[in-house]
Amino acid sequence: METRSNNSEGSSLAIQSGKIRLPLDWTVSLVMLAVALLLCFRWNVAINFDLQIYLEICFYLIVVAVAATLGLVVGRELVNVIGKKKSLSENQNSRLEVYSCIARSLFLFFLCSWIYTHIKTGVLLGVDDGNDLWLREIDRWILGNDGWLIARQLLPDSSSNFLSFIYFAFAPSLLISILYLACAGNVARARKLTTAILVGYFIGVLSYFLLPAYGPAFIFESATCENLSPVTHEAQVKLIKTTNEISQNPATAVVLPWMYIAAFPSLHFSHVIILAWYFRFSRLTLVVASLFAILTGISTVYLAWHYGVDLLGGVAVACVAIFLTEKFSVISIPAFAKPSGSCKD
Predict the structure, then answer these.
(1) Over the stretch 217-230, which tens digit does the pLDDT of each residue have?
(2) What are phi and psi of 334, to 5 degrees?
(3) Is the entire prediction scored with pTM above 0.85?
(4) I need a surface site. Which of 27, 77, 211, 219 has the fewest CB within 10 A?
(5) 167 touches 300 (CB < 8 A)
(6) Alpha-carbon gap, residue 31 to 24, rounded angstroms
């Protein structure tokens, strides 16, 4: 008899009917790790990693995410008090589920980001700018001009700092959303959001290899945002520098977290679409998440991180990631032998 609740379904490895049932998020993490190791050996890319820098970034993101989540939770409780709504009381088991969900989500998020960084380092090895020229032509065919030029003509220069903030709020927003869902008691939705993000990372980073490109800010002089947002421009200069270092000497370069570039598709856009999908449980959350997704899409083009067509690729990645997450909560793998005393099917 099945005794596991819906919230805990697929939360841990299980063996049933001679099959190993592995949750999708863990499956993706393990497959990503295997791919990263294969690519590192295939292209002789360094596995040297600056752990101190990575831990500092992780600590900063967690502190920001926890502080923001606490603010959102307190705000929600104040609204409930003012509106005389009763919050659902949590028992010990539900609190344990919340804490385990948070720990698991944070661990897998940072693990996959570390793996993702190593896979991404090899995307542009030996690649010229031919695909960038092709992507730019697609943009001009669809939009009539370069995406970044259209965005800058429609929006004032004064919006650049705000859009830069939106773009860099990407990672903290993902963590805040996961933590908020878990703290609100919606553990199942928090797990699905985490899983979809990991699946999106995996699909996205592999698709980089199908159409490797740098992005407009790194190829075309007219796309630079030096006069619009010095902060964004400084970040883009650092990214091209670390990407070139890997290309020049992959065997000895030190891999840094989130410090490499690739254009198609836009994972920033795909992940905020995933965010909006799992925050559609109320009109307010859907409006806020959708607005954030729209602003993120605008910022990626306005600041020339991506071509306009990269957003379409991001939509495709998001749709596939959501479909796989909803369709396969666990992956069944045949075991070597059925458990002893098992009943026949």
Answers:
(1) 988 888 888 888 88
(2) -60, 130
(3) no
(4) 77
(5) yes
(6) 10
